[in-house]
């Protein structure tokens, strides 16, 4: 049984869902993509490994044009023969189960049932335990120190998908498949002494540690306590406990899933050493390292040195997998500490990572986000690539709603992100309904359709939202509403309930019935320098990074501390909607700026060297 050690508690998937806005549109596009993939194609490599695949591979080995070829098979990293084949299925199962649990999607539920049935057939054909697309020989080769890329990484994805189907939907079939498969992995791991197995752990294991914690919670079987101990990655965890920076120049997403596993190990066992590892990792990954303006900290999948970012901008700067998993880690840090800083980090990465690296028109992923001048996002294809980031993409866009509202054992309900959602939270055993509604898709509108605050006809610079709280309770329920770190001055609050400002929070006492809270968080155009190069800046409005549409790095003339000397509002109105658009002023050539997460195929720059204007 999980031991509750949290300040805040994540709501169950069915207790909170998106209702409108751009984030929900992204979710819907992701859902349509999940549905578009056929079950046999998803399970193709598991079927082939079990010897029960069909013959299409040699009857139709290739066709003219990728579009035709992709209709009957999955390629890229899912091509039979790929060392990581089969990894995407686990991501798909995880995404599908969360979407079904949140929305009750009957079509996805049916497809998921078929996938579980096919995996059960694979397991039976393989002798009752092995269920993976990865050949058993890959683990033998790994144990012999031979090249296999990362077989445990690929194996973990199948485990992850099965466990998430069980956790989100209560599907006992998925749990039984995972439990039987775990026995064979345990038998393999026992074949090495501790020293040799530590060397094996230096080859990417993905989230195996997290799966063992999840299965310990689900089954109570002592096998998983043994595996938790065996998967303690000493070369990573021990230096973290000693206060050392072991991240600089290390592959980032090799280690983040291990630390997420340590977090789950702590939540299930309450062994403090796991918690200390997680807190030390966050300290070195975020607090002592800093970030790019987008919230990312990696380049070419590698951690940057602390606060040394200028030399790391390139075409492959920010990896989507890192963004997704670091948001998951930020969720852990908030739940454990109740602090607002992880939520601010989460918000920055949501807009300038998850949304920025999903094509708003096709729903496909950009593996990397280029931060070099004049870069372009390179989008994956629906059935041609299946990169690791392709997998985290489909998971990410089923999980946004749960970032918005948290419950608390102390009776406090936290509004963490301002997304349009409807939630049912428990506060000290009482049901509380929460409805968050942004007042337009982007949250940038005035009190009516045409005017800003005070009748100003210009686009208002504020995120405006309405939070409605309902309950049958007669006792007061306290709400904590995050004041975003980018807020300029004091937020506007209109409510009949008692409220007060406490640091990064607005605290509101809901006395039962219905309480309506209208919020306005003022924002301004900001110049954010790269940490080690103050004269090179990015432009942000609220949490959103602005991208300049240029095909190369361009220097601007102005005051690096005052972005209004370089940018002015532009193209701000479209029918009833306010748009976030800027243009350069006082420059040699005009540049248009729009939110980074709206950029599709245009070349763009985020960082601009600034040269002071020389008066004559």
Automatic annotation (TrEMBL):
GO terms for molecular function: hydrolase activity. Coiled coil: none annotated. Keywords: Hydrolase. Residues 16-400 form the Non-reducing end beta-L-arabinofuranosidase-like GH127 catalytic domain. PANTHER family: PROLINE-TRNA LIGASE (DUF1680) (PTHR31151). It comes from the Bacteria. This is Glycoside hydrolase family 127 protein. It comes from Microbacterium psychrotolerans.
């Amino acid at each position: 049984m999980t031991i509750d050690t949290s300040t805040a508690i994540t709501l169950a998937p069915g207790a909170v869902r998106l209702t409108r806005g751009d984030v929900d549109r992204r979710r819907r596009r992701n859902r349509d993509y999940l549905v578009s993939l056929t079950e046999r194609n998803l399970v193709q490599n598991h079927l082939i490994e079990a010897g029960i695949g069909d013959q299409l591979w040699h009857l139709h080995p290739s066709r003219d044009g990728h579009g035709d070829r992709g209709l009957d098979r999955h390629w890229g990293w899912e091509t039979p023969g790929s060392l990581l084949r089969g990894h995407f299925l686990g991501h798909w199962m995880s995404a599908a189960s969360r979407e079904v649990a949140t929305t009750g999607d009957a079509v996805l539920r049916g497809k998921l049932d078929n996938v579980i049935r096919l995996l059960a057939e694979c397991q039976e054909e393989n002798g009752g335990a092995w269920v993976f697309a990865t050949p058993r020989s890959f683990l033998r080769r790994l144990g012999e120190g031979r090249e296999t890329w990362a077989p445990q990484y690929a194996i973990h994805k199948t485990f992850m998908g099965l466990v998430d189907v069980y956790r989100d939907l209560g599907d006992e079939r998925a749990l039984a498949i995972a439990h039987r498969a775990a026995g064979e992995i345990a038998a393999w791991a026992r074949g090495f002494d501790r020293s040799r197995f530590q060397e094996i752990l230096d080859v990417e294991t993905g989230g195996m540690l997290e799966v063992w914690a999840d299965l310990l919670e689900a089954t109570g079987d002592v096998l998983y306590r043994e595996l938790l101990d065996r998967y303690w990655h000493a070369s990573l965890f021990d230096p973290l406990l000693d206060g050392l920076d072991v991240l600089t120049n290390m592959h980032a997403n090799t280690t983040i899933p291990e630390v997420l596993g340590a977090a789950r190990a702590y939540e299930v066992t309450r062994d403090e050493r796991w918690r200390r590892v997680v807190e030390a990792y966050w300290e070195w990954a975020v607090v002592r390292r800093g970030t790019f303006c987008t919230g990312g900290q990696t380049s070419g999948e590698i951690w940057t040195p602390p606060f040394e970012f200028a030399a790391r901008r390139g075409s492959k700067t920010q990896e989507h997998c890192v963004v997704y998993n670091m948001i998951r880690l930020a969720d852990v840090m908030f739940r454990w500490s109740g602090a607002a800083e992880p939520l601010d980090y989460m918000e920055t990465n949501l807009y300038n990572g998850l949304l920025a690296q999903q094509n708003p028109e096709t729903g496909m992923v950009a593996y990397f986000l280029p931060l070099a001048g004049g870069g372009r996002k390179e989008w994956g294809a629906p059935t041609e690539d299946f990169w690791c980031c392709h997998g985290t993409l489909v998971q990410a866009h089923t999980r946004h709603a749960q970032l918005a509202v948290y419950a608390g054992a102390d009776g406090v309900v936290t509004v963490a992100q301002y997304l349009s959602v409807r939630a049912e939270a428990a506060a000290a055993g009482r049901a509380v309904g929460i409805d968050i509604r942004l007042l337009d898709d982007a949250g940038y509108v005035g009190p009516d359709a045409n005017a800003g605050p005070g009748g100003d006809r210009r686009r208002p610079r504020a995120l405006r939202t309405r939070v409605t709280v309902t309950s049958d309770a007669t006792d007061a329920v306290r709400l904590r509403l995050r004041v975003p770190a980018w807020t300029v001055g004091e937020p506007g609050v209109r409510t009949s309930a008692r409220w007060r400002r406490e640091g990064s929070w607005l605290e509101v006492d809901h006395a039962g019935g219905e309480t309506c809270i209208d919020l306005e968080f003022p924002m301004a155009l900001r110049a954010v320098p790269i940490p080690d190069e103050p004269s090179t800046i990015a432009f942000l409005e609220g949490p959103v990074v602005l991208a300049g549409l240029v095909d190369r790095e361009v220097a601007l003339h102005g005051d690096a501390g005052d972005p209004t000397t370089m940018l002015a509002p532009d193209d701000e109105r479209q029918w009833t909607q306010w748009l976030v658009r800027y243009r350069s002023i006082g420059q040699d050539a005009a540049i248009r700026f729009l939110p980074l997460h709206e950029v599709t195929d245009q070349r763009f720059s985020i960082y601009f060297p600034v040269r002071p204007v020389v008066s004559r």
